[in-house]
Amino acid sequence: MLETQLARLESSELVRRLRDEELTYLFKHALVQDTARASLLMHERKRLHRLVAQTLEELYPERRAELAPLLAQHFGEAGDDAKTLEYAELSGDAARRINANAEALRCYTRALDLAQRGDAPNELVQELFLKRGRVLEVQGNYHAAVENYDAMLRVAEARSSRALELAALMARATVHSIPSVVYDAPRAQELSDRALELARALQDVEAQAKILWNLMLLHSRVGTNRKLAAEYGEQALHIARENNLRERLAYVLNDFSPLLTFHGQSESGMQYALEARAMWREMDNLPMLSSNYGYAAMSHLLLGDYDEAIAAAEEGLRISREIGNSWNEAFTQTWIGQAYIERGEFEKAMTVMHAAIALGESVFPPTLILTRSDLARLYTDCGQPERGIELAALAAQVAEQRFPAMHPVAAGALVHAYLAREMLPAAREVLRDSPEEFQPDANPFYAGDLALAHIELLSAEKNFARARGLSDELLGYMRANKMRQYQLAVLLPYAQVCLGMHDFDAAEQALQEARALAQDMHAQWSMLRVLETARALAMARGEQDTADAHAAKVNTLREHFAARMPAELRATFVEHGAK
Fold it and tell me: What distance, in Å, lies between the first and last C-alpha atoms of the chain?
């Protein structure tokens, strides 16, 4: 019967049979299709849509995920909300797996609307809210994510569901704990406190592990108290392992790993990172896999392993762009410009730094402080301190307004630029209210930048004794914690301080250590400053031949760099070196 009707329609040229393996027909004109649809009564259209959907389900049970969008359409036209919800969610899952985030968001929103309209179980409503929120976070749309979790809280209240309320509190606490555009430490703490009390009342150990993970993020990512963050991390790790909470374990391992590196436990940190990486691959969680590579780049950079840092950053960046995750794209590029600078790859350095800054305002504001400060130092060291001052001042302004804990990074870059212009009073003003003592407890990364700024200022003021004492303290910490990037950064001003004190032997010893580090790290940019300082030391000792030998190496390296400089830096770099 069906074959006869199809043959008649084909002979009338109303439909055309496609040359597919399966029997498939196509209307020859959209107007014919519209006319055919309009001629059917509403109940008949619904019946046919249901028949098509049920037939597809029966014929292709193994292709439900693939056919989910079509099934959702037909069941939707049939008026079957329950089935439409099922396949809308499945369509969202399929779209998310291939990183079609906009389509996934549309499908989850449709499913969520149907779930609330149809009074679906709380567990399903919770799942859909969280899936939609995660897509919004991957897109970097954190304001919309907050609105999603607020709506979730309202639904929880309307349904008197404490479990749904707990899930919403935890999800919102996460987006306020990380340095996103909605970062809000007091709000994150308040939400976490509420959530922890509720989780304990419900005896929900999985939720307790997540809240402790949230608190670890809160106290480490912006840098308020890394020791406290580590304590929360240990508690979360214990609960996750003891209760076999595999996905939560992966999150804790992933975000705990850089904390361990910052506290001199780099082997454990790398072990945690690799363990989490294997789990993300197994779970096919690409957003967290790209995050893992971003952390690896940051850790390798701190340890002075620039080749590994660049490799990790490039892989993290590839994955981030593949899945449209602008947060991780910005995060991965935040620091890695430093490694490219050390390699003398200035074009690449400026490309990644400008890309990170461009994404900063919309998804990851720390780039407006951290990356901009790195760029300010590059301009200053290439003979453009005015531009360095401009960029560092902008970074300092953002830090003061949004992330005060990060201010030392911008302050260090600003002091460096002011001193390059011999603007000593301006440099003093930047550090006027900053403690001179090295205070690594909150965040050794930022504390190191602040201490280096004080050392540079004290040296400019010829207060060499205080500069040397602070350098000794900072250098001891960096050596003990294997932070070779900072160790090299401290050795250079330390040698210059010793030179200013006419302690030539100590200066020579510091330069030998710095030279060995620079060679091992392939840090050519730092090597240039090592050689320049070594030349100055030889001149102070009256060793002209040695000074000339160092000068020749300096000139060779500067010529190498000049040939690879972007046009906007080359002329001033060459002129700066000729002085």
Answer: 94
Neighbour tally for 444: CB within 10 Å: 24
Joined together, the tokens standing for residue 213 give: 């993970």
In 3D space, the residue among 173, 237, 166, 243 whose CA is nearest the CA of residue 202 turns out to be 166
pLDDT band at 263 (very low <50, low <70, confident <90, very high): confident
Interatomic CA distance for residues 246 and 133, integer angstroms: 21
The token duo for 23 is 């029997």
For residue 353 the two structure tokens come to: 């730094």
Cα dist from 190 to 11, 172, 291, 521, 543, whole Å: 71, 11, 26, 44, 64
Least confident of 188-192, 310-314, 396-400, 442-446: 442-446
**What digits encode the pLDDT tens for the residues 452-508?**
999 999 999 999 999 999 999 999 999 998 999 999 999 999 999 999 999 999 999
Q: How far apart are CA 487 and CA 500, in angstroms?
A: 20
Domain coordinates in residue numbering, the chain: 1-39, 466-579
Q: How many CB atoms lie within 10 A of CB 192?
A: 26
Residues 555 and 557: their CA atoms lie apart, in Å, by 5
Phi, psi of 542 (to 5 degrees): 75, 25
CATH code, residues 466-579: 1.25.40.10
Torsion sign, CA atoms 57, 118, 116, 196: negative
